């Protein structure tokens, strides 16, 4: 099971739609926050992967879903640096959870279509990634993405299907 988490409105639902369907174009004028969880399955080759999104609004309940999780996609809105310290604190508590001690992590900096190039570095600085990577034992892969342009889609698929 792959878990997809991150703060409210960070872009999880739209990114997962784009991952499932590269031709997906969002025509909705207002997005609907995920209240609770959202499950999707993804066929890659002859394997089917299950991805569960947990809405940012139920962050206090996330740990209820940490059983049987091998991989965690943590989605951060790179275009909104105001929200990023909250994202960092949440990420830290997730990384520190005993049930996820052996999980693989993917840090997705999304909405890159709406960000300046430099914002990637700012985001990683504000998330204190250097320090985090020294302190925790899980491997964190970092990818830049956009649900609008499809940036990062291939890398995310590769990560999902990797051992
Ligand atoms: N420019 C841009 N906007 C995006 C991108 N991804 C999502 N958005 C917008 O960000 C808003 C929130 O997106 P969602 O995918 O619903 O966010 P979420 O992380 O699922 O939010 P919760 O379910 O509430 O936790 C929507 O208005 C999306 O259209 C992106 O890659 N680029
Ligand atoms: Mg959602």
How many beta-strand elements?
6
The CATH architecture is 3-Layer(aba) Sandwich
Proportion of β residues? Answer: 15-25%
Kindly give the count of domains.
Answer: 1
For the termini, the CA-CA separation is 13 Å
Total count of helical runs of at least 4 residues: 5
Main sheet properties:
6 strands, mixed
Topology as H/E string? Answer: EHEEEHEHHEH
Whole-number mean pLDDT: 94
What is the CATH level 1 assignment?
Alpha Beta
**What's the alpha carbon Rg, rounded to whole Å?**
15 Å
Bound molecules: guanosine-5'-triphosphate, magnesium ion
Shape: globular
User: Which residue ranges are poorly predicted, with pLDDT under 50 across at least 5 consecutive positions?
Assistant: none
Helix and strand content put the structural class at alpha/beta
What's the CATH superfamily, by name?
A: P-loop containing nucleotide triphosphate hydrolases
Strand order of the largest sheet: 2-3-1-4-5-6
Q: Approximately how much helix is present in the residues?
A: 25-40%
GO molecular function, one term: GTP binding
Pfam families: Arf (PF00025)
Binding site for Mg(2+): 13, 34
Keywords: GTP-binding, Magnesium, Metal-binding, Nucleotide-binding
